[in-house]
Amino acid sequence: MLVVMDRNAGSKEIKEVVNYLVSIGYQAEELPGKNRVAIGVMGNARDIDRKEVARFPGVKELISVTKRYKKVSREFYPDQSVVEVNGARFGGEEPVIIGGPCAVESEAQILASAEFIAEQGGKILRGGIQKPRTSPYDFQGMGFQGLSLMRKAADKFGLAICVELLDGEDLPVFEKSVDIIQVGARNMQNFSLLKKLSKIKHPILLKRGNSATVEEFLLAAEYLLDGGNDQIILCERGIRTFETSTRNTLDLNSVALIRKRSHLPIIVDPCHAAGVHDLVTPLALASISAGAQGLLIETHPNPLQAKSDAQQQLDFPAYANLVNQVGSLSEFMQPKENLV
Ligand code: PEP
Ligand code: MN
């Protein structure tokens, strides 16, 4: 439930309502907003005596929030959230592109990648160090050795790094060395991991599980916000459907829908959706058109030699071309000054 206060209600009146709601067993939180003062009520608000709340001075109206996610919703926070990392603003005016290889494979590979991403105007380098592979016989990643190579390469070129965390045990190392902690599709509903990540301040890139509904995706993000971490970036990366011609099916409905329902920034990873490099650029452009506020793109100095996801990584010229096209498209999409 939302308790909307009169525009000129003072902090004393707001506090009185919050204290009352807390005293009867609910979580109540003052919500910042440009155009209104409101109090968000969490808990089973159906049982609240609405008349009792309405009697408090300064209360304008009570609005039921039927969605199971609250802090993630635009009902609670109408204004777009912006997550800023190394000067890049997720949810800001321009799309943010995170680029880099599927996995860190060697010093030379990650150095070449970092140099290239910086040259392309990128601010954030991606790369996996522990890969969640379907088969135990496939390349599992370089582990912490890969992380230190990546950190060194990124520092050399002024980049932040985005790395997937598989296991909560490794969180202390990630907190020290990683700028954006990625929760992969396979861990989207690893609630104990989400709870741990909710207690830190690092930005989290939360990928959609490949069989998760939009509601489940947003409820996973709710765990992070509810625990106290509001630096959340959502990432659509394709879902499993009856269609087998591509690795997954990119669900652009989810992007347009999440832009409406949530204030959190959402980006798209077309590489894991398509599974093949030559579909990546058209899907990236479609994603931006649907409202994505950024992209996660796998690129490799020599994709065919890649130890994981060789088919879907862009080579450097294709990546540069994508950056260029996304730039033109987003310029075209900027709200125009009145031209008449
Ligand atoms: C990745 O981004 O490296 C990855 C493994 O993606 P996903 O979790 O979306 O499969
Ligand atoms: Mn990959």
What does this protein structure show overall?
The chain has 340 residues and is an alpha/beta fold. It has two domains: 2-63, Alpha-Beta Plaits (2-Layer Sandwich); 83-333, Aldolase class I (TIM Barrel, Alpha-Beta Barrel). Helices cover 34% and strands 18% of the residues. The chain contains eleven helices and 14 strands. The chain has helices spanning 11-23, 50-54, 107-119, 144-156, 171-177, 191-197, 214-227, 252-261, 270-274, 280-290, 316-333, and strands at 2-5, 27-31, 37-42, 59-63, 83-85, 88-90, 96-100, 124-126, 160-164, 180-183, 204-207, 232-236, 266-268, 294-298. The strands form three sheets. It has an eight-stranded parallel sheet. Strands 2-3-1-4 form a four-stranded antiparallel sheet. Helix 6 (191-197) packs across helix 7 and helix 10 (280-290) packs parallel to helix 11 (316-333). The N and C termini lie far apart (44 Å). Residues 102, 272, 298, 308-309 line the site of manganese (II) ion.
